[in-house]
Design brief:
11% strand, 288 residues, alpha/beta, six-stranded parallel β-sheet
Length: 288
């Protein structure tokens, strides 16, 4: 439709696509990739990021269908975490980790948390390993480092957690391991502390697209903003009415303030719903 076509044909500068449910946003992102390539952008200079492996696979399949089976290069379509794994596998040596680091599963994390609590002589009655991991995860999502955790603590349990956090992170590093939150946390740290690393990865992508942008947290926003800083060729798709991940750090302001963060933003609204009949939509709107 006209709004979708306008979004597909807007290829440079910041673009905010406000897309309601069933409005064809995945179609738009996929066709926009094809349009960029048709206009001479190298496929491997295009990065499209989404939140789930399922969504990334769907987008990869659609892109492959549009571009043909064997293009000379492929656009990178991935989740935030898989993007960060790729970056860390190349660059984590700058932070003192080996490139073949392991990613801990939940059992390994709980064992490390239990060891950290034992190291600071805190019993599980005072703070359970699972509760410690939940507090550390919340801090990492907010970009709070072990040295800053004591100032961030809001109660006695969090003061204990702040002391254990330092031990936990040291134990992870000594074991040549990272946890799931570290994938974003350490990438953010790399980009902040190592300008040469950031510059190298800024040069990899000339165009970046983000799906479900309303669900980005502070670290995800900072990583992407760092990557697009030289050119601002960023296209984000989202719906402020579908933001449901505030409990895990998503910040709705990223989509609401996008035009202020990226001056000159073009805003396009996809408002036609292809998923439901009029009767369903009318009833849903009455309930809302």
């Amino acid at each position: 439709n006209p709004a979708q076509r306008e979004a597909v044909q807007t290829l440079s500068g910041p673009l905010l696509i406000l897309a309601g449910a069933g409005s064809g946003k995945t179609r738009v992102i996929t066709y926009r990739m094809a349009e960029l390539i048709a206009k001479g952008v190298r496929a491997d200079r295009i990065l499209s990021v989404t939140f789930t492996n399922k969504a990334a696979r769907e987008m990869q399949e659609r892109a492959a269908h549009l571009l043909g089976k064997k293009p000379p290069q492929k656009p990178l379509v991935c989740t935030f975490h898989s993007l960060c794994v790729r970056i860390l596998r190349q660059e984590i040596g700058a932070l003192g980790y080996p490139q073949d680091f392991a990613i801990c599963d939940r059992g390994d994390q709980e064992s490390m948390a239990r060891t950290a609590l034992r190291d600071i002589r805190v019993s599980e009655k005072s703070l359970k390993p699972g509760d410690l991991l939940a507090i550390i995860s919340r801090w990492k999502t907010r970009g709070i480092h072990p040295a800053e955790a004591r100032d961030a603590a809001e109660n006695d349990r969090e003061f204990l957690a702040a002391a254990a956090y330092r031990k936990y992170q040291t134990n992870l590093k000594n074991a040549a391991s990272v946890d799931f939150d570290d994938l974003l946390f350490l990438t953010q740290r790399l980009f902040r502390e190592h300008a040469d690393v950031l510059e190298r990865h800024q040069g990899r992508f000339s165009h970046v697209q983000i799906d479900e942008y309303q669900d980005t947290n502070g670290m995800q926003f900072e990583i992407i903003e760092s990557l697009v800083r030289p050119h601002h060729n960023i296209c984000v798709v989202g719906d402020d009415d579908q933001s449901i991940y505030g409990w895990r750090g998503a910040e709705l302001r990223h989509i609401l303030e996008f035009p202020h963060i990226f001056p000159g933003t073009r805003i396009i609204r996809l408002e036609d719903n292809y998923r439901c009949t009029d009767r369903i939509l009318n009833l849903a709107n009455e309930l809302v």
